[in-house]
């Protein structure tokens, strides 16, 4: 018998979530963000499952794009941060990629380059995130230079990123939107603005393109979920099993440092799965886990290969019982990665991208 921990990837759920995103914005084209190895799900498998459905993909680096091309993916791919050095332009062209430009040096490199065909370019504007992009007052001049460089750049779009589209307090989102609307009008530019939270909650951000990421994987990024976000389906199920059961007397501790002590005579399940697999060591006592489809509480510190769960109230649970750390149990019961993340003082993005290579990915569904 092999170690029972696996990441089961439901590619039908991925397609469902993609269709949900697309259905919200029927007048936009919706690309699928596949950076960080498809948020930990396996970018190649996700790209294949979405091929023919998504008109484009987006990644964070040339290497990520190259691995998709090597796997035979021919769908357009956007480099959301563009190039990291001028020497990458040859590969951008050879791999037939689209690229964001966010800095003067990228514009200079592009304009000094002689591609056989112009490269589709998305001009990134900093509308308030203050991470990447040109200040709004400079966007017009840069746009004009790119527009005039018809041998180097084509298909210009304006791109920007929201800092607070997930928040219940909409003030800053509206501020960013006001900057962008003004710019778009002056430049008559097609837009690509909406990440997952904006796709779910802010139709006024929809542009020629939308670019959701995490929602495609079934995580709800909104501070307050809405009717659509509640229809998302988890794509990854981090599934394991009980490998041992401890019977403790009241007062006996569990695990490193004895952080948790049994308040009553307790049955404790030892589960294959720990921080050496990417399960967050910050998981607090009480972090939910599904044991045989029923909610139970993680107790004691997570160790590298194992974690411990109080199954006192689940008498039918025993060695070999299914344990779902997040995702969908065999019974159909769902434990959202967002809920687990809250108990780890983090967000779903870190948990999903943090599942380490030691955990086998098993793919299900995904065909037409
Ligand atoms: C990661 C990323 C996205 C997708 O964000 P989600 O919150 O996962 O939808 C969109 N745009 C940019 C620039 C990104 O880096």
Summarize the structure.
With 368 residues, this protein is of the alpha/beta class.
Describe the structure in your own words.
- The chain is elongated, with a radius of gyration of 23 Å.
- The chain has a 7-stranded parallel β-sheet with strand order 3-4-5-6-7-8-9. Strands 11-14-17-16-15-18 form a 6-stranded antiparallel barrel. Strands 2-10 form a two-stranded parallel ribbon.
- Helix 1 packs across helix 3 (43-50) and helix 7 (136-148) packs parallel to helix 8.
- Helix 7 (136-148) links the parallel strand 7 and strand 8.
- The mean pLDDT is 97.
- The longest helix has 17 residues, at 171-187.
- The chain contains 11 helices and 20 strands.
- The chain is α/β, with parallel strands linked by helices.
- It has helices spanning 11-24, 35-39, 43-50, 62-70, 89-94, 104-112, 136-148, 171-187, 196-201, 337-343, 348-353; strands at 6-10, 29-30, 32-33, 57-59, 77-79, 98-101, 119-124, 153-159, 191-192, 209-210, 236-248, 253-254, 260-261, 266-272, 288-291, 294-298, 306-310, 322-328, 334-335, 361-364.
- It has 2 domains: 11-216, Alpha-Beta Barrel (TIM Barrel), CATH 3.20.20; 236-364, Lyase, Ornithine Decarboxylase, Chain A, domain 1.
- The structure holds pyridoxal-5'-phosphate (PLP).
- Residues 33, 35, 80, 161, 195-196, 211-214, 221 line the site of pyridoxal-5'-phosphate.
- Residues 235-364 form the Alanine racemase C-terminal domain.
- This is Alanine racemase.
- Pathway: Amino-acid biosynthesis; D-alanine biosynthesis; D-alanine from L-alanine: step 1/1.
- It is an enzyme of class 5 (isomerase).
- Catalyzes the interconversion of L-alanine and D-alanine. May also act on other amino acids.
């Amino acid at each position: 018998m092999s170690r029972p921990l696996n990441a089961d990837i439901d590619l039908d759920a991925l397609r469902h979530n993609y269709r949900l995103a697309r259905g919200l914005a029927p007048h936009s084209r919706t690309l699928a963000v596949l950076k960080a190895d498809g948020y930990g799900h396996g970018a190649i498998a996700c790209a294949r499952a979405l091929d023919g459905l998504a008109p484009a993909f987006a990644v964070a680096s040339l290497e990520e794009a190259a691995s998709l091309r090597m796997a035979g993916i021919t769908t357009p791919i956007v480099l959301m941060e563009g190039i990291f050095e001028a020497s990458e332009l040859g590969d951008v062209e050879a791999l037939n990629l689209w690229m964001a430009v966010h800095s003067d040096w990228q514009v200079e490199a592009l304009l000094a380059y002689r591609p056989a065909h112009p490269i589709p370019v998305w001009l990134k504007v900093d509308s308030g995130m203050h991470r990447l992009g040109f200040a709004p007052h400079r966007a017009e001049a840069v746009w004009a230079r790119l527009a005039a460089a018809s041998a180097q750049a084509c298909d210009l779009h304006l791109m920007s990123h929201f800092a607070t589209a997930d928040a219940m307090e909409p003030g800053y989102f509206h501020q960013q939107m006001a900057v962008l609307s003004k710019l778009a009008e002056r430049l008559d530019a097609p837009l690509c603005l909406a990440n997952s939270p904006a796709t779910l909650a802010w139709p006024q951000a929809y542009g020629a393109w939308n670019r959701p990421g995490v929602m495609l994987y079934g995580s709800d990024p909104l501070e307050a979920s809405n009717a659509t976000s509640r229809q998302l389906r988890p794509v990854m199920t981090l599934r394991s099993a009980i490998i041992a059961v401890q019977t403790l007397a009241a007062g006996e501790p569990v695990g490193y440092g004895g952080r948790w002590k049994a308040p009553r005579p307790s049955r404790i399940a030892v589960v294959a799965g720990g921080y050496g697999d990417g399960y967050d060591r910050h998981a607090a006592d009480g972090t939910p886990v599904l044991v045989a489809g029923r909610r139970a509480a993680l107790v004691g510190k997570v160790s590298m290969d194992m974690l411990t769960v109080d199954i006192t109230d689940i008498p039918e649970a025993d060695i070999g019982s299914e344990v779902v750390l997040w995702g969908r149990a065999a019974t159909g019961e769902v434990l959202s990665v967002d809920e687990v993340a809250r108990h780890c003082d983090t967000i779903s993005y870190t948990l999903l991208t943090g599942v380490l290579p030691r955990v086998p990915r098993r793919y299900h569904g995904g065909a037409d």
